[in-house]
DNA sequence: CCGAGCACTTTGCACCACAAAGTGCGGTAT
DNA sequence: ATACCGCACTTTGTGGTGCAAAGTGCTCGG
């Protein structure tokens, strides 16, 4: 098998954003506060990563006002597809590395 | 399962070095020229990554002079262990992301 | 001696992760 | 009404680093 490392999505393949994408993949929607609590990231950093993901078209943002203003985030179709592609590559790497 | 993204080894988790580590894992030794040809990296860049990996104790360097001077590279025990740990984390991410 | 190739080092640029501090807005308490 | 607090940002600053390009020394072949 031929691994093409150029195909690694730089947007996803960064520690912080990889963490975000992985979390987002497990649940339909996440509030900003929950993400922050789970990731133990500074909010500035978290927002920046979310914006990067948003600009790449991977993440959708929903703003609502319940009793408190609350923004929630989820993967777009495109984001899901990109993440699936990324995971497939990881799998190949794991297989190659262990085989 | 609880994923700890802080455990991601920054030395390994970079595109170029991840490629190098993956290649090194598949064969006992690689010549510099072979790595360069396979990775399509500039030699300066490749050397820098190899040095980083070397300083982390993950890669051993062997210099020999056959007809031409030739340097070859291989994983150390520590490198192999670190890479295995990294791959295990990748596996968890893949599982979490797909589950 | 000259040119080529290997294995570097050095330099420089540009990007980016990350933290810290500041902003605005709405709700809540006093 | 005002003061305060938390949420969701933006801005700023710094350090680190990937990467390319150019330069270095070394050895061999012609």
Characteristic terms for this protein:
homodimer, 99 residues, alpha+beta, Arc Repressor Mutant, subunit A, 3 strands, elongated, DNA-binding
Q: Provide the β-strand percentage band of chain A.
A: 15-25%
Number of strands of chain A: 3
CATH homologous superfamily descriptor of chain A: Winged helix-like DNA-binding domain superfamily/Winged helix DNA-binding domain
Name the pair of protein chains with the most residues at their interface, and give those residue counts. Answer: A-B, 25 and 25 residues
Overall domain count of chain A: 1
Q: Shape of chain A from CA axes?
A: elongated
Rg of chain A, alpha carbons: 15 Å
**Helix and strand succession of chain A?**
HEHHEEH
CATH architecture label name of chain A: Orthogonal Bundle
Within the CATH hierarchy, at the fold level, what is the topology of chain A? Arc Repressor Mutant, subunit A
Strand order of the largest sheet of chain A: 1-3-2
Short description:
The structure is a homodimer of 99-residue chains. Chain A has a single domain (5-92), classed as Winged helix-like DNA-binding domain superfamily/Winged helix DNA-binding domain (Arc Repressor Mutant, subunit A, Orthogonal Bundle).
């Amino acid at each position: 098998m031929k691994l093409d490392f150029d195909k690694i999505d730089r947007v996803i393949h960064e520690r912080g954003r990889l963490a975000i994408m992985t979390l987002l993949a497990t649940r339909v929607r996440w509030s900003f506060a929950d993400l922050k609590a789970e990731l133990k990231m500074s909010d500035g950093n978290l927002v920046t990563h979310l914006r990067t993901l948003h600009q790449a078209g991977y993440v959708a943002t929903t703003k609502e006002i319940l009793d408190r203003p609350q923004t929630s985030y989820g993967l777009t179709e495109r984001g899901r597809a990109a993440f699936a592609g990324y995971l497939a590559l990881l799998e190949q790497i794991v297989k190659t590395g262990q085989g």
